Amino acid sequence: MAFGVDYRWLRWPGTGGPRIGYGADYNPEQWPRHVWDDDVAAMRAAGVNIVSLAIFSWARLQPGPGEFDFAWLDDIMDLLHRNGIAVDLATATASPPPWLTAAHPEILPVDRHGATIWPGARQHWRPTSPVFRAYALALVRAIAQRYRDHPALTAWHVSNELGCHNVYDFSDDAADAFRAWLRARYGDIDALNHAWGTAFWSQRYTDFGQILPPRQAASYPNPTQQLDFKRFSSDALREHLRAERDILRAVTPDVPVTTNFMVMGESSGMNYADWAGEVDFVANDHYVHPGPQALDELSFSANLTGNLAGGRPWFLMEHSTSAVNWQPVNLAKRDGELARDSLTHVAHGADAICFFQWRQSAAGAEKYHSAMLPHAGRDSDLFRAVTALGRTLSDLSGVAGTPRTPARAAILFDWESWWACEQDSHPTSRLRYKQEALDWYSAFLTLGIRVDVLPAAADFGGYDLVVAPILHLMPAALAERLRGYVDAGGHLVTTYFSGIVDEHDHIWLGGYPGALRDLLGVRVEEFGPLSDGEQVLLDTGAPATLWTDRITVTDPQVEVLATYRSGEYAGRPAITRRPVGAGSAGYVSTRLGATGLVDVLARFASAAGVGSELPEHLRGRVELAVRGQYRFLINRTDEPVPLTDLPGEPVVGPARTLPPRAVAVRAVPAAH
Ligand code: GLA
Ligand code: GLA
To answer: Which atom of ligand 1 is nearest to the CA of 160?
Structure first.
């Protein structure tokens, strides 16, 4: 059960009382033994209290079938423990060793073209390979039995970033497992034929044995087959997580198990709303994507992770102290960003701040990736910033264990809609689900209004305002929940291309936005996507791109908040709002972007009675996040911001002026 065990990882050995975890992936096997003593001394100097160990150690731990070499791991586990450093111990299954792939090439993934994904990098394994599973679980059992009573063992780290490179595998193993998954989902082949709409293009199946993964085909593969393959692929990796976890729980029932999610990672492949309940505490990895919304995106990721964790504290398992190595251009972090990025995660509920990795590698693909201890060594500004952050986190010990304080507004985020709305052969291939959600989030930040990013399955009934950007895939039950929310006085806002298909990716007929048409009081007969570079204006003067809808208002109660001024639909409604009792249902039919949404959101928020908790001069310049009595004030700008008219006592950070990219934390006792 999720969170069924207590947070043993918060009860730090020998330190008395909760604290914020601080550390990194630690890869001592990359270094000679004498470096380890220096590592541990430097960790202590930096305030490191936890490391993730053995993530990529399979080849070292198991030199051959049935042969184990734990001596080096015993040594480093003992050394860390003697120095008061806790261990999040990996199951080491992330990267199979050469002897295994040489003996069993049938564990290697296959791409959609039938090409083998060869060894030589990492994560070259099929989630559905019974051979891989057997070897991996044998290793997990051996490690669990070896370290079950080790006093440094604080948590288990299953594999690593499941699905980072191997989420979609089109092998024969995957085909077999996909068929079994489909049998369980549909029961009989007629139900599958209906769901997949196989009357189209002569695709009717007469037996599950005829079904394949959506391999490279002559034209667009069946869309429901593609969608089900995404669901299946997420589930297949989750099965692997469960299999490792169940062994760990059997051997060490008291040690919490986690795995590091990539909630806003490169791939949308893992439906973390379905995964979060599988771990004892949620852990996430986040890397900054440079650009104008970089900090907003970081905050969005942290916010969603905190809500996947049900508001309870979570663990930032990886981020970077400075540059990564895998972007087209790998920017170094600017002064202040290391601490600001870290504290933004804490603000949204992280109770541990960890990095990839402890000591920057001298060799290998990630030697240009920053670390806590850089190539330059301890005498470096980076290590000084790392050490300063260690002190700050220690000053924040009182925050540890404190849940996020919910906001009054929510943004719904839904992996199935993400998958479905970006599939091929749609009105436009330019639509980006995550970007639209992020633009709304940025608009909230600009207005200084706190918002929770929630999985769509979460209970949003208590929120005064719910924004559901591109909630494209809408099973009848979800439409019913949204209707019930509005009927009960809630204020819903949704956008273009929402409510269009059911769970099988079948259109809700009768005019768009299908499942939400009556609730919104509008009807759209045809979509009007815009060409690249094309822009139309609203009567508010706001430029709109990507998408327009030819809207007819069907309910006289509907208020038209904005109309199209230019383009084919000039004079027609662009933004509408239907009052429903004490609630309302709003519709934004075009893409306005982070800036253009600000005024629109301000109107919807004020109608919902939702406002900023910040004094006016701080709105937009500072992000506010709240954990119990702790208020985090994050400077979103490169300018100093005066901290006037704020309640509470400073816990960390300056009292009067927030420097560029800095964070202040104030404690406001409950009476306020
Ligand atoms: C991922 C992996 C790490 C490392 C980092 C680099 O998060 O889990 O092993 O490769 O990326 O950014
Ligand atoms: C071709 C095909 C049709 C249909 C159309 C779509 O003409 O013959 O079956 O796919 O393209 O534009």
So the answer is: 8
Q: What would the DSSP string read from start to end of 213-265?
A: ---S-SSPPPHHHHHHHHHHHHHHHHHHHHHHHHHHHHH-TTS-EE-EE-TTS
Q: Which of 53, 159, 161 to mutate to test the pocket of ligand 1 (most atoms within 8 A of CB)?
A: 161
For residue 57, give the CATH number of its domain. 3.20.20.80
One domain, residues 340 and 423: no
Q: Give the binding-site residues of ligand 1, using a 6 Å CB cut-off.
A: 160-161, 285, 287, 318, 324, 356, 366, 369
Tell how far the Cα of 204 is from the centroid of ligand 2, in angstroms. Answer: 19
Residue 172 Cα to ligand 2 midpoint, Å, equals 31
Q: Is 492 helix (H, G, I), strand (E, B) or coil?
A: strand
Q: What's the farthest any 2 CA atoms get from each other in the chain?
A: 78
Q: Domain of 556: which CATH number?
A: 3.40.50.880
Distance spanning both ends of the chain, measured CA to CA: 36
> Mean pLDDT, to the nearest integer, of 14-34?
88
- Burial class, 456, CB count within 10 angstroms (exposed 0-12 / middle 13-18 / buried 19+): buried
Strand runs labelled E in 567-621: 573-580, 583-588
Q: Whose CA is nearest to atom 5 of ligand 1?
A: 356
Do residues 391 and 525 share a domain? no
- List pLDDT tens digits, range 638-665: 999 999 889 999 999 998 999 999 999 9
Residue 390 and residue 435 in one domain? no
Within-domain flag for 213: no
* 71: pLDDT strictly greater than 50: yes
Q: How does residue 14 score in pLDDT terms, banded at 50, 70 and 90?
A: low
For residues 647 and 576, state if they share a domain. Answer: no
Residue 246 placed within a domain? yes
**Ligand 2 centroid from CA 427, angstroms:** 16
| Structure tokens that stand for 377 in this block | 């060594």
Give residue-wise pLDDT tens across range 378-433.
999 999 999 999 999 999 999 998 999 999 999 999 999 999 999 999 999 999 99
Shared domain check, 384 and 358: yes
What pLDDT was estimated at residue 266? Answer: 82
Structural domain includes residue 208: no
Give the closest ligand to the alpha carbon of residue 321.
Answer: 1
Strands (E), 297-374: 314-318, 350-355
How far from chain centre, in Å, is Cα 566? 38
- Per the prediction, the chain carries an average pLDDT of 96
- Residue 4: the pLDDT is 35
559 is catalytic: no
The DSSP letter of residue 66 is T
The answer on 537 and 643 residing in a single domain is no
Tell me the average pLDDT across 325-352.
Answer: 97
- The string of pLDDT tens digits covering residues 230-282 is 999 999 999 999 999 999 999 999 999 999 999 998 889 999 999 999 999 99
For tokens 């039995």, name the residue. 145
Does any domain span residue 597? Answer: yes
Looking at the structure of the chain, the number of domains it has is 3
Catalytic residue among 244, 297, 318, 436: 318
Catalytic one of 161, 278, 297, 623: 161
Q: How far is the CA of 193 from the centre of ligand 2 (A)?
A: 22
Verify that 130 and 88 share a domain, yes or no.
Answer: yes
> Domain span at residue 518?
409-608
- CATH of residue 639's domain is 2.60.40.1180
pTM: 0.97
Say yes or no: 597 and 626 in one domain: no
Which of 122, 285, 317 should be mutated for ligand 1, with most atoms under 8 A from CB?
285
| Amino acid in position 53 | L
Residue nearest to atom 11 of ligand 1 (CA): 356
pLDDT reading at 12 higher than 90: no
526 is catalytic: no
Examine the pLDDT at 200 and tell me if it is beyond 70.
Answer: yes
